[in-house]
Amino acid sequence: MATQPVSPLVDVVIRGARTQMPFESCVEQLGSAIQIGIFRPGEKLPAERELAARLNVSRATLREAISALRAAGFVQTTRGRGGGTTVCDQIPSAHFGHETARSRRAEIDDVVIFRSVIEPGAAERAALTDLTPDQAALLEQALNDVSTAESPESYRRADARLHLSIASVCGSEELASACNHLQVKVHHLLAGIPFLERNIEHSDQQHRAIVRAILTKDAVAARQLMQDHCDGTAALLRGLLA
Ligand SMILES: [Zn+2]
């Protein structure tokens, strides 16, 4: 396996991870670096210690990010002397033509931007709404369904239902319909990336905090928490799909 010198562009792409979501941020940065060829097929990634320092994350977080990239088919790891993590010869998006990659990127941007407008607003609005006991119970049930989902598929469906439930208690059919449309698109994009335990744990905490903020009528927190939650998914999509 050829070992090329690390590209100087690595400093442009690999920077300190955002502290709020170090795992997702690492996946995004490393995935992007591989997709644009800063780390080329067959090239070994820098040593774990060095990479963790560049990204300003713990080595445990870096290892989880690398295992996400491995699950997505971006890198492979060999053990023993001379082993390490190298970029796969064919990374998933390399199978697509240039046009396809560009339209995929546009599709992700389209969904991510639309979502960043709709969902934080819906969470804020839900927190400002005087919920009936049934509506509050709907949110609690949706939250419970996500946290007890037993398979990746049921998790993602329950996740979509929770987001839709939040929009549905605001009292606007247009809003619920926009959110529904959005969930279908997000679901479709998420189907293209692996199910990542670390991201799920993080999402679970965020879901609980969002629902708590809505039920306690803390609109500012509800909006911010939902924004952070959407940013996390956006980072994964951009890192692993774009
Ligand atoms: Zn969610």
- How many domains, in number, for the residues? 2
Radius of gyration: 19 Å
Model regions low in confidence, pLDDT < 50 over at least 5 residues: none
Mean pLDDT: 86
Overall body shape: elongated
Query: Strand arrangement, largest sheet?
Result: 1-2
Care to count the β-strands?
Answer: 2
The CATH homologous superfamily of the largest domain is called GntR ligand-binding domain-like
Strand content: under 5%
CATH class of the largest domain: Mainly Alpha
Walk me through the structure.
The protein is mostly helical. The protein folds into 2 domains: 10-94, Orthogonal Bundle (Arc Repressor Mutant, subunit A), CATH 1.10.10; 96-240, GntR ligand-binding domain-like (Four Helix Bundle (Hemerythrin (Met), subunit A)). 67% of the residues lie in helices and 3% in strands. The protein has helices at 10-13, 22-35, 48-55, 59-71, 98-128, 133-147, 152-168, 173-190, 197-215, 219-240; strands at 75-78, 84-87. Residues 159, 163, 203, 207, 229 line the site of zinc ion.
